[in-house]
Amino acid sequence: MQRTLSMHCLQKIKTMLRFEHVSKRYPDAGEALTDISFHLERGEMVFLTGRSGAGKSTLLKLIAMIEQCSRGNVIFDGENISRISERRIPYIRRNLGLIFQDYKLLHDRTVFDNVALPLIVSGVNHMEISRRVRAALDKVSLLGMERKYPLSLSGGEQQRVGIARAIVNKPKIILADEPTGNLDPDLSAEVMRMFEEFKQVGVTVFIATHDLELVNRLGHRVMTLNKGRLVGGGQV
Amino acid sequence: MRNKNKKDLIERIKEKFEAYLLNHAHGLFSSLGRLSRTPFTSAMTILVLAISISLAGGFYILIANIQQLTGNLQTTNQMSLFLHDNVNENAGEKLAEQIKQNLNVDSVKFITKKQAMEEFKANSGFGDALNALDTNPLPNVIQVLPKNVLISSDEIGKLMTEFKQLPQVDFVQIDMQWVERLQTILTIADRGVFLVSLLLGFAVTFITGNTIRLELHNRQDEVLISKLIGATDAFIQRPFLYTGLWLGLLGGFFGWLIVSIVLLILKNPVEKLSSLYNSGFELQFLSFFEFISLLILASLLAMLGSWAVMVYQLRRIRPL
């Protein structure tokens, strides 16, 4: 009894993200997700695949608290984020590193300012910002590009700026929505190598993609969505 | 060990506070930089604000000047009894003596038509024209100052009718009644200025709010991204509120400038006019205190407009 309890606790500590019977229904578009249950461990790298419209983006939106689920619970790092006050959302988001297919960079700001944004938002002091932005740019091999503007960079470089911005605040989990959607195979492989490095240092990485070839080659856990239902990879 | 922790905590709080101040300073100056990057739009907004503010300030200073003009005129219940033409100086003098006996009268002064003419010639500036007249058209006048106890208008009215019934008296007039009337009108005008200022204040709030709404629309991507990386609403609002502050401050300053320039243009003619009336009237400008109040009020109204728009719009802008 004692043992199962401590096992249970250990399990909880190890779990980064847990979905419990989560459904999401849109008023006009019907059910996007149906009864989804899974969990991600700390330091795990997991792919989420499925055709477009299968619900990948919706699932990521629930984690990023952009949407709220209609039923079930989403537990992030021990906190139920499916029923959370608007006020608390910004503080939880600081633990997420979001990466987008279209990079979502600010074109009127330099690379440095783009990467510094999460730190400024969290109230990190000046010296520390400078140090950490450089460290993040170093990790994505963009050191020396601080003063450039995003539009003067190639697509692959812009995505790396986006990745630097996602990791600069030392997030607990990285959520990437089609991060290689606009990149050629070589650049995609490079981006994936970076994600594997983050996994090495204990960050949970959750990647939504429909690039099955890439996913199969890398050999991580793969979850598959079909018409809003989890059809594979839900259980470890 | 515990001491070290405490020191660390103080250090950390200090750092957070510094970052917070830096963030405010950044918001303050970056918003000014943003305004200067769209000089035409900014100038138009500031000009519209300045005109609204100058209208309110202009009305205010206009009333203040008229009040200054009439303020040093004392309202007394002194009345003038104009005598019929056929009453000569002796009869007038006698009547004055008679009126003085009245218990309600404090003092009387008899002014002959000759004295009145001299005084009029000296002060009106019509001296030469008056010389052309062959008869003196002015009547003999008795000035009556009622006792101070008679303050109610009822009693003044009674006294007036009493004098009016005297056969020698043509008509009776309370000298300062026009001042009282003017002051009543000014009280109404004062309230009017308050209401107009209130409306113009609303205008300042709405103009700024609308500008901020457009600015927010242009920077929607930035707001969305900031939200996604964990910015609080307060953080996102800050630069916009500072933009509002600058707009209000600059609008207030230029509004003051417009009022001052208009007053400077009017200063000479007004003082010339006042010297014609032998009056020591000097055009009154907005005081330093009024200038500062104007700036503060304009800034607060503009920030209020920005804040209201931000609260409403931030709830509407959600990441997709």
Summarize the structure.
Chain A has 236 residues and is an alpha/beta fold.
Key phrases:
heterodimer; A: 236 residues; alpha/beta; Rossmann fold; 2 domains; four-stranded antiparallel β-sheet; 10 strands; 26% strand; B: 320 residues; alpha+beta; Alpha-Beta Plaits; 10 helices; elongated
Number of strands of chain B: 4
Low-confidence segments of chain A: none
Helix content of chain A: 25-40%
Tell me what portion of residues of chain B adopts beta-strand conformation.
5-15%
Q: What's the CATH architecture of the largest domain in chain A? A: 3-Layer(aba) Sandwich
What is the typical, i.e. mean, pLDDT of chain B?
A: 85
Helix- and strand-based class of chain A?
Answer: alpha/beta
The CATH topology of the largest domain in chain A corresponds to Rossmann fold
The N- and C-terminal alpha carbons of chain B lie at a distance of 48 Å
- Number of H/I helices of chain B: 10
Please summarize the sheet with the most strands of chain A. Answer: 6 strands, mixed
Low-confidence stretches of chain B: none
Shape verdict of chain A:
globular
The DSSP helix count of chain A reads 8
Report on this model:
The complex is a heterodimer of chains A (236) and B (320). Chain A is of the alpha/beta class and 236 residues long. Chain A has helices at 2-14, 56-63, 89-93, 111-121, 126-139, 155-167, 185-200, 212-218, and strands at residues 15-26, 30-41, 45-49, 71-76, 79-80, 96-99, 173-177, 204-208, 221-226, 229-232. In chain A, helix 4 (111-121) crosses helix 5 (126-139). Chain A is globular and about 50 Å long. The mean pLDDT of chain A is 89. Chain B has helices at residues 2-37, 39-71, 89-100, 113-124, 127-131, 153-164, 177-218, 220-228, 233-276, 288-316; strands spanning 79-83, 105-111, 141-146, 169-174. In chain B, helix 1 crosses helix 9 and helix 2 (39-71) runs antiparallel to helix 7 (177-218). The longest helix of chain B has 44 residues, at 233-276. Classes of the chains: A alpha/beta (236), B alpha+beta (320). At the A-B interface, helix 3 and helix 4 of A face helix 1 and helix 8 of B.
